[in-house]
Write a structure and sequence with these properties.
The chain is mainly β. Helices cover 9% and strands 49% of the residues. It is elongated. The protein starts with a strand and ends with a strand.
């Protein structure tokens, strides 16, 4: 506050308020307007190490090395008729075909059959199954070529799968745990028919006629 003294006994008090002016370019700090808010800091982005840690979380996985068709023949459904004529066969007994795994290493290792079956369904054939039950009553008739013997054998279609099991560790390295063979049925079944000159079983003649 400023007091101005005039002639006589009258004095007048003058008040002044400070006015803020923009700072010069050379001044060490610039004035900030009252309604300005400081800029918010950016969200920190994950580091490369953090991203790598997410990608390299320990896990167990499979690699499929071979995938070949295989027939699961139902026991006691192999019939031979002839020579010539017509043969008819029917399934008269119920049978189960299972998904089985044979490991090449003798030590006990836990292998997830569900994980392997899921991998096969997603990448190869959605019809593969853990088991298939063959029901009775599937009839089939076939004309046999004159002079030949007809053969029928009921089967479940499936696959013989060679695989390797791997474990990935946190440093992104992977090592092989074991290898094995899986016999996997599919949800498809039916009769197989073929002809031979003689009644045969496992490549050997059963009789000359």
């Amino acid at each position: 506050m400023t007091t101005l003294t005039l002639v006589g006994s009258l004095s007048v008090a003058l008040s002044s308020s400070a006015v803020a002016y923009p700072a010069d370019n050379d001044s060490p700090s610039a004035a900030v307007a009252p309604d300005e808010t400081p800029a918010s800091s950016a969200t920190p982005t994950p580091s490369l190490r953090e991203e790598a840690a997410k990608m390299c979380r320990p896990k167990f996985f499979f690699r499929i090395n071979s995938f070949k068709p295989r027939n699961f023949f139902v026991p006691r459904t192999h019939f031979i008729d002839g020579p010539g004529g017509t043969m008819t066969a029917t399934v008269k007994r119920q049978h189960r075909v299972y998904f089985e795994i044979e490991l090449e290493k003798e030590k006990q290792i836990e292998i997830s059959k569900d994980a392997l079956l899921r991998r096969l369904k997603n990448n190869f054939n959605p019809l593969v199954a853990e088991e298939l039950i063959v029901e009775t009553g599937h009839d089939y008739a076939q004309q046999i070529t004159p002079g030949m013997y007809g053969n029928m054998w009921y089967r479940v279609f499936g696959y013989r799968v060679g695989f390797s099991a791997w474990r990935r560790v946190s440093d992104c390295g992977s090592h092989k745990v074991t290898t094995g063979i899986a016999s996997v049925p599919a949800r498809v079944e039916g009769w197989k028919y073929w002809e031979t000159k003689h009644p045969m079983y496992k490549g050997r003649p059963l009789s000359k006629r």
